[in-house]
Write a structure and sequence with these properties.
This protein has 10 helices and 2 strands; from the N terminus they run H-H-H-E-E-H-H-H-H-H-H-H. The protein has helices at about 25-40, 50-55, 60-75, 95-115, 120-135, 140-160, 165-180, 190-195, 195-205, 210-230; strands at about 75-80, 85. About 65% of the residues lie in helices and about 5% in strands. Helix 2 packs across helix 3 (about 60-75) and helix 4 (about 95-115) packs antiparallel against helix 10. A hairpin with a 3-residue loop joins strand 1 (about 75-80) and strand 2 (about 85).
Length: about 230
């Protein structure tokens, strides 16, 4: 049986910072199932089986049940009376609504991160920037690049030090990533999209809020253009 890792590699960047308490089983189950749904490892429309998830994660059904309650609120799963629970479908018509929110809040988070990032935040972001610089598109598939993209976004949101803003953006970035993953094989410049984070990270680490906001907005707008071109 595969046991759930103490620190998921693609979870919220805050969990990797020193001094954090070990995550609860429910939180670890939530992050693992969430990222399976976000990366479409659990396909849209697929049934969700509590017992199978509990076995694959090496936990009891109670942590899984608690995780699923949160994931339903975040629109990643849906429950139908007398039918069961399923991964939500990816609806391309949601792109405009999701982008509308992100175009306003991503620049705000980037600017606040540039103002508020701690030394630990800057260290996390700098490490991610090195990973971006060392990424080899010829050897890494789109899924690996998407995991890196998620890590960068979550680290930026954490560095803004506004839990309400962070929670909102994590939820919307998760939904946007599902759309991106659906069209991954039609997107020729996935590496270029992810590499855009380099200047954004630099602006945050060097404390340039206006530049960080501008770059964040451009990144979101570029995402929507790329998806619409691929449809």
């Amino acid at each position: 049986m595969q046991q759930l890792a103490t620190e998921p590699t693609s979870g919220n960047a805050r969990s990797t910072q020193p001094g954090r308490e070990e995550l609860s089983l429910a939180e670890r189950a939530y992050r693992s199932i969430r990222d399976r749904l976000v990366m479409l490892e659990i396909r849209p429309g697929a049934p969700i089986h509590e017992e199978q998830l509990a076995q694959s994660l090496g936990v009891g059904r109670t942590p899984v049940r608690e995780a699923l309650k949160r994931l339903q609120y975040e629109r990643l799963i849906t429950t139908y009376p007398r039918r069961g629970t399923f991964a939500t479908e990816v609806n391309i018509t949601d792109l405009a609504h999701i982008s509308e929110v992100r175009q306003e809040l991503e620049p705000l988070a980037a600017a606040q991160a540039a103002r508020r990032a701690t030394a630990a935040d800057r260290e996390v972001l700098t490490t991610l920037r090195h990973e971006l610089e060392n990424a080899d598109p010829a050897r890494q598939d789109g899924t690996a690049l998407m995991h890196l993209d998620l890590q960068v976004h979550r680290a930026v949101y954490a560095a803004a030090h506004n839990p309400y803003l962070e929670d909102t953006l994590v939820r919307h970035d998760n939904l946007a990533t599902r759309i991106w993953c659906l069209f991954l094989d039609r997107l020729p410049d996935m590496a270029g999209h992810v590499e855009e984070h380099g200047p954004l990270i630099e602006a945050i680490v060097t404390g340039e809020p206006e530049r960080a906001a501008r770059l964040a907005r451009g990144h979101v707008e570029g995402f929507e253009r790329a998806i619409r071109a691929a449809i």
